[in-house]
């Protein structure tokens, strides 16, 4: 079975393959071909891929038409499905809730399309969960990018000229990204507070050495996939009131609240931002889905009239492409390996498998995923 890994167009810096993932795929009997220059942003040369067992091909060689499996990072354009071999498997991010035409095009072209965003959040699928692996890196880099722009140092310092107090960091949303942001800020020496609508995460926050902020919002909870449930407008207002004072005392605020397939909730209003000190930094990890912060502009940095800097960079994990590619490629390789038939040396469509039921959107010319059939 032939696997083809495409080189991404700018501005994407990540790749769907690394020499290590190629070795794993070759070891199970797959023929792996990577597009020339695929690892340039992640510091992997074509010779590194060749040493690992991959063949190198240029885009104009038309390998994509002969591939049984095509792997990439970003969603393809709808018209690109017609370039693929009928019955082949396309694996990538697909942003399915915002790309209904893409799903329809895949089905019409007879392509079996896997959306990596839809990977179930189960123990068995953990090593394939690219949402978590990428969010982990985004949470780390959120703190690094804020620290770089802050006009203060992060840790406490005892000096002959006096004591320098540690920076105060407030993390809103304690999922994978939030937990990594907390851990990174603590390692840098910050005083960290965190809030989440799910009381169940309090123990995790405390285990990292941070303070868990309690705000009485009434009944809250999480979905069966581990995501925070959407709040009512009344609960959002209560949350904003409770967070306003903490934001005003914070040097760095990091927001991580995303609602899968829907617009991100607004957590920080302009009035809340007005209460923050000049030079404070806000990093909005939900910028790509509308933002948690009033005034966020996706892929831009905005400085308010009060002197507060709002960082709205989409996909902060792209700022560390070496490791972002490493974990993403590992997720893909683990997925293929899980469904690999050792006897036939091919990907086996076990349609009743909970993992495949969760992420396979189209198969044999039809949209088969229950959430997208309509």
Index terms:
374 residues, alpha/beta, Rossmann fold, seven-stranded mixed sheet, six-stranded parallel sheet, 10 helices, globular
Describe this structure in words.
With 374 residues, the protein is α/β, with parallel strands linked by helices. The protein folds into 2 domains: 2-118 and 321-361, NAD(P)-binding Rossmann-like Domain (Rossmann fold, 3-Layer(aba) Sandwich); 131-319, NAD(P)-binding Rossmann-like Domain (Rossmann fold). Helices cover 29% and strands 17% of the residues. It contains 10 helices and 19 strands. Strands 11-10-9-12-13-15-14 form a 7-stranded mixed beta sheet, sandwiched between helices. It has a 6-stranded parallel beta sheet with strand order 3-2-1-4-5-6, with helices on both faces. Helix 3 (100-108) links the parallel strand 5 and strand 6. It is globular and about 65 Å long.
Topology:
Blueprint (H helix, E strand, L loop, with lengths): L1 E4 L13 H9 L3 E5 L10 H7 L2 E3 L11 E3 L17 E4 L7 H9 L3 E4 L14 H20 L7 E3 L2 E3 L3 E5 L3 H12 L3 E5 L6 H6 L3 E2 L20 H16 L3 E4 L14 H5 L6 E4 L16 E3 L5 E3 L9 H18 L1 E2 L4 E2 L6 H6 L2 E2 L2 E2 L7
Parallel strand pairs: 1-2, 1-4, 2-3, 4-5, 5-6, 9-10, 9-12, 10-11, 12-13, 13-15
Antiparallel strand pairs: 7-8, 14-15, 16-17, 18-19
Helix pairs in contact: 1-2, 1-9, 4-5, 4-9
Radius of gyration from CA coordinates? 22 Å
Helicity range of the residues? 25-40%
Q: How many strands, what sense, and barrel or not for the largest sheet?
A: 7 strands, mixed
Find the CATH superfamily of the largest domain: NAD(P)-binding Rossmann-like Domain
**Count of β-strands:** 19
Architecture of the largest domain in CATH? 3-Layer(aba) Sandwich
Averaged pLDDT, please? 94
Proportion of strand residues: 15-25%
Q: Span between N and C termini?
A: 33 Å
Enumerate the spans where pLDDT stays under 50 for 5 or more consecutive residues: none
SS content category: alpha/beta
Count of DSSP-assigned helices: 10
- Number of spatially distinct domains: 2
Main β-sheet, spatial strand arrangement: 11-10-9-12-13-15-14
| Coarse shape | globular
Report the CATH C-level class of the largest domain: Alpha Beta
Order of helices and strands: EHEHEEEHEHEEEHEHEHEHEEEHEEHEE
The CATH topology assignment of the largest domain is: Rossmann fold
């Amino acid at each position: 079975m032939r696997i083809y890994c495409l080189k991404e167009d700018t501005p994407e810096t990540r790749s769907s393959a690394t020499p290590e993932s190629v070795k794993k795929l070759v070891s199970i009997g797959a023929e792996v071909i990577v597009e020339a220059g695929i690892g340039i942003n992640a510091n992997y040369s074509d010779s590194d891929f060749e040493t690992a067992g991959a063949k190198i091909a240029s885009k104009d060689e038309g390998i994509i038409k002969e591939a049984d499996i095509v792997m990439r990072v970003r969603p393809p354009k709808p018209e690109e499905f017609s370039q693929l071999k009928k019955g082949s498997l396309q694996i990538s991010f697909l942003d399915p809730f915002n790309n209904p035409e893409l799903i329809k095009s895949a089905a019409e072209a007879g392509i079996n399309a896997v959306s990596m965003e839809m990977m179930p959040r189960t123990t068995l699928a953990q090593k394939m969960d690219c949402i978590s692996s990428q969010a982990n890196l985004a949470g780390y880099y959120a703190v690094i990018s804020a620290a770089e722009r802050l006009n203060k140092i992060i840790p406490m310092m005892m000096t002959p000229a006096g004591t320098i107090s540690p920076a105060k960091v407030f993390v809103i949303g304690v999922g994978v990204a939030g937990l990594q942001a907390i851990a990174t800020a603590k390692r840098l020496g910050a005083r960290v507070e965190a809030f989440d609508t799910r009381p169940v995460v309090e123990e995790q926050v405390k285990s990292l050495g941070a303070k868990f902020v309690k705000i009485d919002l009434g009944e809250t909870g999480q979905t069966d996939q581990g995501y925070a449930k959407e709040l009512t407008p009344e609960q959002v207002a209560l949350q904003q009131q409770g967070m306003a004072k903490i934001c005003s005392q914070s040097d760095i605020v990091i927001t991580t609240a995303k609602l899968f397939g829907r617009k991100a909730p607004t957590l920080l209003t302009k009035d809340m931002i007005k209460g923050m000190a000049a030079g404070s930094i806000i990093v909005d990890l939900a910028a790509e889905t509308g933002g948690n912060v009033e005034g966020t502009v996706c892929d831009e940095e905005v400085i308010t009239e009060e002197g507060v800097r709002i960082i709205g960079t989409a996909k902060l994990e792209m700022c560390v492409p070496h490791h972002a590619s490493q974990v993403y490629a590992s997720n893909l390789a683990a997925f293929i390996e899980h469904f690999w038939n050792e006897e036939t040396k091919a990907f086996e469509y076990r349609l009743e498998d909970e993992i495949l039921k969760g992420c396979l959107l189209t198969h044999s010319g039809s949209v088969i995923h229950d959430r997208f059939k309509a």
